[in-house]
Design a protein that fits this description.
By secondary structure, the protein is an all-beta fold. It has strands at 2-6, 23-27, 36-41, 52-61, 67-75, 80-82, 92-94, 102-110, 115-124, 134-142, 157-163, 172-178, 190-195. The strands form four sheets. The chain has a five-stranded antiparallel sheet with strand order 7-8-5-10-11, with no helix packed on it. Strands 3-4-9-6 form a four-stranded antiparallel sheet, with no helix packed on it.
């Protein structure tokens, strides 16, 4: 905000010998702030082995100052593998798509109040241990800091817990392995039972 003040009189007592100091201006900068925020939603899925878990990531610059170098960061959750085909194009994962790999999606500049969505998708392993009751995933958003610090870093991270439904399928195969030919009443028959 620019403000200018000027002082003067009616000249009844003479002429002001120095009019250069009768005016002064001051510029007061408006408060600017950066506040990146991110959310994560798995759509309410309960995942079974081999299922695709698709996370919708909602990001926004809530502040009134634009940012540069914005990036979303993910880690491929345990017992899953990243699916580039089912995710927003542009994700880069190091070292690969396996669990524990770090993935990033460059957003570039975000103007004040700008928002958008991205998708990060993974497949639950198949098979997967019965002890795996959920998939835990955390996402973060950041920028290069060149336009100032984020005033509220607490909303730069979101966590989603996706429950799993791991059903152990047991089977039993019974095979006749030894019998006389022809089989007569009272004959001994031998079977092999195979559990799967």
């Amino acid at each position: 905000v620019s403000n200018t003040a000027t002082v003067g009189d009616d000249g009844a007592n003479g002429v002001d010998p120095n009019t250069e100091n009768n005016t002064d201006s001051d510029n007061t900068p408006l408060g600017t702030s950066i506040d990146l925020a991110i959310s994560k939603n798995d759509g309410g899925i309960t995942a079974q082995p081999g299922d695709l878990i698709s996370y919708t990531l909602g990001y926004e610059n809530i502040g009134n100052q634009g940012v540069t170098g914005a990036v979303i960061n993910e880690t491929v959750p345990l017992n899953t593998r990243f699916s580039a085909t089912d995710s927003t194009p542009g994700w880069v994962c190091v070292p690969d798509a396996s669990a524990g790999s770090t993935c990033s999606l460059a957003l570039g500049g975000l103007a004040a109040a700008q928002q958008g969505t991205a998708t990060f998708a993974v497949f639950l392993d198949d098979p997967v241990a019965e002890s795996v009751t959920a998939v835990f995933n955390t996402v973060t958003i950041s920028d290069d800091g060149s336009n100032g610090a984020d005033i509220n870093p607490s909303n730069n991270q979101a966590v989603e817990t996706t429950p799993t439904d791991i059903q152990v399928a047991l089977g039993l195969v019974k095979t006749l392995t030894d019998a006389p030919d022809p089989v007569e009443e009272g004959s001994l028959l031998e079977y092999t039972l195979t559990a799967t």
